[in-house]
């Protein structure tokens, strides 16, 4: 099954020490997709953040390279929503606003639970 990974989700491994790829595999998701809008967002975070947040963004950027890249630019949340509908894919995100938008469209959402595992929440 396909899953689109949001910017904040790519930062989970550094921030919470959770291997998102192992967790996604456990949930049955074997195709990981990242739109170029997310990569652009990560590049901007690397330029603008400092300390641990910058390190998390750098690690996230390198993790994005392990995923299938889809060339879609624009506001990342809008791109993710459009791509999820087009690919009929779930979305891994911790963004509350994006999560609500996805749930309104009946798109499966995966979130971090109890800061130690991923779970399908809708």
Number of domains: 1
Strand arrangement, largest sheet?
3-2-1-4-5-6
Span of the ends, CA to CA: 15 Å
**Strand tally, please?**
6
Low-confidence stretches: none
* CATH H-tier superfamily: 5'-nuclease
Reported for the largest beta sheet, the result is: 6 strands, mixed
Q: State Rg.
A: 13 Å
Reported CATH architecture: 3-Layer(aba) Sandwich
Pfam families: PIN_9
Keywords: DNA-binding
Protein name: DNA-binding protein
Domain PIN: 1-100
How does the SSE layout of this entry go?
Layout lengths: L1 E4 L1 H4 L1 H5 L3 H7 L4 E5 H13 L2 H14 L3 E3 L5 H12 L2 E3 L3 H9 L4 E5 L3 E4 L2
Parallel strand pairs: 1-2, 1-4, 2-3, 4-5
Antiparallel strand pairs: 5-6
Care to describe what's here?
The protein is of the alpha/beta class. The protein has a single domain, classed as 5'-nuclease (Rossmann fold). Helices cover 52% and strands 20% of the residues. It has a six-stranded mixed β-sheet, with helices on both faces. Helix 7 links the parallel strand 4 and strand 5. The protein is globular, with a radius of gyration of 13 Å. Pfam families: PIN_9. Residues 1-100 form the PIN domain. One of its GO terms (molecular function) is DNA binding.
Record keyword descriptors for this entry.
single chain; alpha/beta; Rossmann fold; 7 helices; DNA-binding; PIN_dom
């Amino acid at each position: 099954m396909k899953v689109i990974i949001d910017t904040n989700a790519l930062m989970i491994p550094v921030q919470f020490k959770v291997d998102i790829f192992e967790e996604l595999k456990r949930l049955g998701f074997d195709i990981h997709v990242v739109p170029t809008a997310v990569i652009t967002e990560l590049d901007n975070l690397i330029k603008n953040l400092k300390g641990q947040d910058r390190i998390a963004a750098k690690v996230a950027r390198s993790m994005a390279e392990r995923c299938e890249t889809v060339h879609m630019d624009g506001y990342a949340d809008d791109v993710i929503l459009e791509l999820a509908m087009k690919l009929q894919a779930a979305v891994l995100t911790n963004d509350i606003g994006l999560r609500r938008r996805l749930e309104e469209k009946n798109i499966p959402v995966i979130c971090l639970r109890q800061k130690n595992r991923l779970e399908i929440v809708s």
